[in-house]
Design a protein that fits this description.
flat; 218 residues; 8 helices
Length: 218
């Protein structure tokens, strides 16, 4: 049974306060987009969700490499925890993206490069969890999962660079750099990015702790 100590409870309180402050900023302080109106505010959750997903899949990559070198199952559990959280945030990306796209593009989905490559990453991780569930012997599953996690990360830079890898005429995502956005947008965006990163760190730590306790009790 997990019994949070004082430091853990303080961490939970900090994360809740940060998320509340972020929601306040997004709803009440961020500028209203003249064309997209309220739908544009999803940007402050959509992009940080993508950042957390990519960060988590990078952790899967690193954990997989270390596991293959050391055969230390702690790193297998780190990879599993990061894969679970990364997939959760990828689902949030695939939900918030079409909501935003409906206002920005007039349709929720149009198979443009960034959306399509993100969906491919999600499907790869569906396969990852199927491997975890039905792959057979634990040692073989851990090894194959590490390899798949390493290979899957190849799609992350493809997603990030998709607006440059494909011709502009097949793109729906804007070609405008983030640095060119107004200051009122960027300060709130970076606070949201920080908040999501703190939330992710707490979620990853807690999930690894749970997996470690399960391994100790087996």
């Amino acid at each position: 049974m997990l019994i949070p100590n004082k430091k853990i409870r303080v961490g939970y309180v900090i994360m809740i306060l940060l998320m509340a402050a972020n929601l306040f900023n997004v709803l009440l302080k961020s500028p209203m987009h003249p064309a997209q109106q309220w739908a544009q505010k999803i940007f402050y959750y959509h992009v940080p969700s993508a950042w957390v997903a990519f960060l988590s899949f990078f952790v899967v990559l690193v954990a997989g490499i270390i596991f293959l070198k050391t055969r230390n199952y702690f790193w297998d559990r780190v990879g599993l925890a990061a894969a679970e959280i990364g997939t959760l945030f990828t689902i949030l990306v695939l939900i918030t993206g079409p909501i935003w796209a409906s206002a920005a593009w007039g349709k929720a989905w149009n198979w443009e490069p960034r959306l399509t490559t993100t969906l491919i990453l999600f499907l790869i991780y569906i396969g990852y969890f199927m491997l975890r569930e039905f792959g057979g012997a634990p040692e073989r599953v851990a090894r194959y999962a590490a390899i798949l996690g390493i290979i899957a990360f190849i799609d992350v830079p493809i997603i990030f660079m998709s607006v440059r890898l494909w011709a502009p005429e097949v793109q729906s995502h804007p070609q405008v750099e983030m640095a060119s956005q107004p200051a009122g947008i960027m300060s709130i965006f970076f606070f949201s990015l920080f908040t999501f990163t703190v939330l992710y760190s707490g979620m990853l730590w807690l999930r690894i702790r749970i997996l470690n306790l399960k391994a100790e009790n087996q």
